[in-house]
Amino acid sequence: MISLEWYRSFIEVYRVGTVSGAAQVLHLTQPAVSQHLAALESALGTALFERTPRKMLATEAGKRLYTQIAAAIETLESIPNRGALTQTPQLIRLGAPQEFFTERILAKLPQDETILYTVQFGLAQQLIEQLQEGRLDVAVATQKIAKLDIEYQLLFEESFWLVGPPATIMPISEEVLQVDLTSLEEWLRTQSWIAYGEDMPIIRRFWRVVFGRRIDVNPKLIIPDLRGIRQAINYGFGFSVLPDYLCQKWVETNRLTLILKPTKSVINHIWLAFRKSERQAQKTRMMLELFSLVPGAKLESV
Q1: pLDDT computed for residue 24 by the predictor
Q2: What gap in Å lies between CA 106 and CA 127, rounded to an integer?
Q3: Can you spell out the DSSP letters for 48-106?
Q4: From CA 83, how far away is CA 2, in angstroms rounded?
Q5: Quick one: three-class SS letters along 155-186?
Q6: Is 41 helix (H, G, I), strand (E, B) or coil?
Q7: Residue 134 and residue 132: Cα distance in Å, rounded?
Q8: How far is CA 173 from CA 162, 178, 193, in A?
Q9: pLDDT for the residue 284
Q10: Is the CB of residue 261 less than 8 Å from the CB of residue 161?
Q11: Average pLDDT per run of 10 along the chain, which is 302 residues long?
Q12: Which residues of 80-115 are buried (b: 16+ CB within 10 A; e: fewer)?
C-alpha cells in the first residue's frame, strides 16, 4: 500500500526541486524524504525523477503523477487540524407538514453558518417511514404512529375553527348558538365546502365532535394544502375547518369570518418524532432544545 507521506514527499520534491529543500518544508530529515521517494518509485515501478548534481528533474511519469495527485493533496492539506473539522456545518434533515413548517417552524430555525437544513414535506405516515429508514433525522408528525424504535415528544396543540368568506352574514344569532347548534348545522349543510381530501377528513371529524353526527355533503373544491384552502375561503369559494394557527390572524383582520369556535374544542396534537437510539445525538438534542422539549423544560408553543 502506498503511504500518503510518500506522495507528500514527492509533491514537495517536485515543487522545490531538491530533496534537502523538500525535507525543510516537510520538517523531515533528508534521508527520510529520500526513502519516501525510493519506496514510491518501487511501488509504482517507474522512476519519477532524474537525479542531477543540482536539481531533481521530473520524468514524464513524474509529471503525470503530479498532475493526478496534486489537487487531492492540496485538498487534504487545506484541513489544518482537528479543530477545523468541528466547524463543519451540521446537516439536519427535517420532515414536516408543509403548512406547519412554513407557518410555525421556519421562523424558529437558527440562522448561522454551523447548521444546514434539508426539509421534506409529507403526511405523518410517509415522514415516519422515512425517519425509520434513516432518511430523516427528526420529523414533525400530526399523529403518533406506533413504532418500537420511534419516540415522540409533544410539540404543539392545534384546535380547529369553522370559518367562512369575509362577507358572510350569519343568519343565526349568538344567543341561539349558545343554546342549540341545530339551526347552524342545517344552514351549513346548504353551503359550499372546501376540503383537504375527497373524504373530507378534517371536516368530518369536526362535524362528529361538534354536531354529534356525520356530514353528508360533497365538497365543491378539494385542495390538499391548508393555506390554499384558507385563500380559497377568502376568495369566497365556500366554508371549511382550519387549525387556529392558520386562521386566527385572518379572522382578526376580517379576511375570514369566524363561524364557530366550539366550546367543546376539536384538538389535534403535533409531535416531534425521532429515533430512540439517537435521542442523545447532537442533531436530535438541537431540535428538542429549539422547541424547549428537553427533559424538565417548559413546553412552549412555537
Answers
A1: 87
A2: 18
A3: -EEE-SS-EEE-HHHHHHHHHHHHHHHHHHT---HHHHHTSPEEEEEEE-HHHIIIIIG
A4: 27
A5: EEEEEEEEEECCCCCCCCCHHHHHHCCHHHHH
A6: helix
A7: 5
A8: 16, 9, 22
A9: 86
A10: yes
A11: 86 89 88 92 92 89 89 71 59 92 89 87 92 90 90 92 94 78 91 93 92 90 94 97 94 96 88 88 84 48 33
A12: eeeeeeeeeeeebbbbbbebbbebbbeeeeeeeeee
What is the set of domains in the chain, with CATH numbers? 4-78 (1.10.10.10), 90-156+268-290 (3.40.190.10), 158-267 (3.40.190.10)
Query: What is the reported pLDDT for 35?
Result: 93
**Coil/strand/helix, residue 227:** helix
3-state secondary structure of 2: coil
- Report phi then psi at 197, rounded to 5: -145, 170
Which residue reads 454551523 in cell numbers? Answer: 114
Q: Which amino acid is at 191?
A: Q
| pLDDT of 282 | 81
Q: Say what the pLDDT of residue 232 is.
A: 97
Cβ neighbours of residue 16 under 8 Å, at least 6 residues apart?
Answer: 22, 25
Beta pairing partners, 121 = 96
Phi and psi at residue 133, to the nearest 5°:
-80, -5
d(CA 229, CA 221): 9
User: What's the pTM?
Assistant: 0.63
Residue 19 one-letter amino acid: V
Instruction: Give the CA-trace dihedral at 286, 289, 294, 298, to 10 degrees.
Output: -170
Q: Which amino acid is at 122?
A: G
The beta-carbon contacts of 206-211 under 8 Å, at least 24 apart in sequence, are 206/160, 206/162, 206/241, 206/266, 209/262, 209/264, 209/266, 210/162, 210/181, 210/260, 210/262, 210/264, 210/266, 211/181, 211/185
| Res 296: pLDDT | 40
